[in-house]
Write a structure and sequence with these properties.
The protein is an alpha/beta fold. The chain has helices spanning about 10-25, 50-55, 60-75, 90-100, 140-160, and strands at about 35-40, 40-50, 80-85, 105-110, 135. It is globular and about 45 Å long.
């Protein structure tokens, strides 16, 4: 039997890179979201959530990756780049993607409560903005969602241990 072909340029390959970043966040007790930015088949930025560590509400994986990619390219315009992120971006991050002229967004798990790329808001494709981001959702959806569920289940368990009420 032939060995499976591994496509090093597939959405699944780069989403697995983003999942590795999300696991780093999980290990540091941050919401496990990871992001990578790819240009011409090469990863130019990697980041994970650092909101708690940096005490900065804007330290989402997507924002940190955009900053890294801009530094790597020497330009704020990320034309020709694709962001892979394990969870659908929030409105702040979706807006940053449009402002950075990101060519493409690929996300794993949708965010039905506050997603900014189609679930609740469609910021990445909003006709009122001067740039629209090609958006693909659901890549490795189950794996991305499972990591988030595991994180929040552990958080709820810790809350019960402290006698806190569970959020419904």
């Amino acid at each position: 039997m032939d060995a499976p072909v591994i496509d090093l340029f597939s959405d699944e390959h780069f989403m697995r890179e983003a999942l590795r970043q999300a696991q780093r966040a999980f290990a540091r007790d941050e919401v496990p979201v990871g992001a990578v930015i790819v240009r011409e088949g090469r990863v130019i930025a990697r980041a994970d959530n650092q909101v708690e560590e940096l005490r900065d509400a804007t330290a989402h994986a997507e924002i940190l990756a955009i900053t890294q990619a801009s530094a790597a390219l020497g330009d704020w315009r990320l034309d020709g780049c694709t962001l892979y992120v394990t969870k659908e971006p929030c409105p702040m991050c979706a807006g940053a993607l449009a402002l950075a002229r990101m060519a493409r967004l690929v996300f794993g798990a949708p965010d039905p409560k506050s997603g900014g790329a189609g679930s609740v808001f469609s910021i990445t494709r909003h006709p009122g903005l001067n740039h629209r981001v090609e958006t693909v959702g659901g890549v490795l959806r189950e794996e991305c969602a499972a990591l988030l569920k595991r994180f929040f289940a552990a958080k709820r368990g810790k809350g019960r241990e402290r006698g806190e009420e569970r959020e419904t």
